[in-house]
Structures are given as structure tokens and as C-alpha cells.
Amino acid sequence: MTRYLCSAALWFALVAVSLFAVRVAAATEVEVAIADLAALDPAKSHEAREVALAALIRLIERDDEALAHTLAEFATTEDDALRGRLAVALGLVDDPHIEAVALLMTRPHEPLARRLAALDLLDRRDSVDPEIVGGIVELLESDEPPAVHARALYALGRPQDDPALVRRVLAAVRPHALGPGDELRARALWVTAQWARAEPDLAPVLAAVSHDDRRLRAAACFALGQARLHTVAAEAALVARMTAEDERPAVRDRAWRSLRRLPVREDTRQRVQAFRPAAP
Predict the structure, then answer these.
(1) pLDDT of residue 280
(2) Which residues form the signal peptide (predicted)?
(3) Which residues, other chains included, contact 218 with Cβ-Cβ below 8 Å and sequence gap of 6+?
């Protein structure tokens, strides 16, 4: 019996040593792959970047230790270029831990650059996890720098159909769709159109179609063309922009392009067909 116990103990010890060696090897491999990414010369070819990214992705797809190491590097590195490259790799790997870690990095106690990088990663992930979406919504509901709000709008992910989540998202986005800041507001209008499920949800977008700023009018026309919900009011607003003689050509063109995407009425279809877009 003692002999068997000793043999078993020796076997377990050998397994432990082997597993440790595998982990060390994996850690070494991922360190090399990350170092290769960090050393990339921006002037080098796109192909070199793709090769380095593919090598890292292969490692983190097959080994949890490599994934953990890469996430830790993403969370702690001070190299902005490397963090961006790691975000590209992590954005392509199917593992829910990535989104959880990224969401933790968006919390207010983290440095701003790290928070923005984490939101960029969540944008790449396009998450449909209600917990992740809820965490992003919290940022939109809070008093945050405009840069955080802007990245959070991009990170919201694909629209979902859960009524409670839709209401919460639209309520959080609405102040940004009606507030200052051209880029922030334009993105908020697009998100509103994407998540809208009932005609009243589109109210901020319809209001922006007649805004004094031509850029917001164009953004609103674009958003209506991308909306999942089509309404008579939205169609009429786009027709009004397309046919307004005193409207900027770029806005009229944007309204025309949006109408071409929509299932419009016959009279509208004829107007769209008769419209002549501005020369490029």
C-alpha cells in the first residue's frame, strides 16, 4: 500500500510539475506575442500587424492563462498604442470574461485613458448581455466627462427587445440627444433611432430634423434611415428635408438616401425617384 501511495504521490507531483511547465510555457508565449505587438513599427505594413494579432489571438483562444495574462496587460499597460492593439485582439475572442473585465475598467476610479480604452473594447464586443449594457447605461446616467459619454454611446451594443432595458436605454440617451455637443448629440440620435420601439421614442430625432445646425439635421436624417421603426411622421420629416428648396444640398441628399432605404408610400416613392442628388 505504501508503495502505491508513493507511486500516486510521485504521479501527482509529476502532473503538477508538467502543468506548471505548460503554464510557464504559455505565459512565455503570450509575453512574446504581446512584446511583438508592442514593438510594431507604425510605418510597417498592415500585413505585419495582422500576423502579430493572429498569433496572439490563437494563444488566447486556446489557453485561459494566456487570456488572463492578456487581459491583465490590457488593464495595466501605459502604452496607448499597445492597449489599442490588445483591444483589437480581445474584441475578436469569444469569452464573456473579457466584457466583465472591460466593464470593471470603466468605473470612475480608473484613469480616464484606461476607461476610454475599455469602452472601445466593449464597442468592439457589441455585447448583448443585459448586465454589460446596464453597466454602460449607468455611465450615461452619471455625471461623466463628455468623452466617456461619447464612448459609452458607441459601446451600447446591438439594440435589444426587452421592454425594461429599452426604456432604460432610451431614458439615459435622451438627455444627450437633446443636449449640446455636435458629435455626442449625433451619436445619441442614432442610438435613439436604433432602440426606438414606439413612435414617441423617435421624438428627439424628429425634433433634430428641423434643428438650426445643418450637421444635426443631416445626422437626424441619417438616423431615421437606419431606424428599425418606420413611422408616417418620420417619412414626412424626411420628405420635407429632401424637398425644401432652401435646404443645404448635403442635407437634402442625406434625406433622399434615407428614404430610399425605407418602405415608403407610393407618392413618396415617386418623389424619391424624381429627386436629383447633388453632384459630388
Answers:
(1) 52
(2) 1-21
(3) 248, 250, 251, 254
Distance between CA 60 and CA 71 in Å, rounded? 10
Q: How far apart are CA 163 and CA 168, in angstroms?
A: 9
C-alpha distance from residue 262 to each of 132, 234, 256 (Å): 31, 10, 10
In this model, does residue 3 exceed pLDDT 60? Answer: no
Q: Is residue 1 scored above 80 in pLDDT?
A: no
Which of these, 27, 37, 33, 35, lies nearest to 85 by C-alpha position? 37
What CA–CA distance (Å, rounded) separates 153 from 125?
A: 14
Using alpha carbons, select from 28, 117, 129 the residue that is nearest to residue 80: 117
Contact (CB, 8 A) for 168 and 134: yes
**Residue type present at position 42:** P
Angle subtended at Cα 216 by Cα 214 and Cα 217, rounded to the nearest 5 degrees: 60
Q: Can you give the pTM of this predicted structure?
A: 0.81
* Sign of the dihedral defined by the CA atoms of residues 203, 242, 159, 68, in that order: negative
- Residue 17: CB atoms within 10 Å: 10
The Cα 12–Cα 33 span in angstroms is 31
For every residue of 216-268, which 3-state class applies, written as one string? HHHHHHHHHHHCCCCCHHHHHHHHHHHHCCCCCHHHHHHHHHHHHHCCCCHHH
d(Cα 52, Cα 57) in Å, to the nearest integer?
Answer: 9
Burial of 13 (0-12, 13-18, 19+ CB in 10 A): exposed
Burial group, residue 218, by CB count within 10 angstroms (0-12, 13-18, 19+): buried
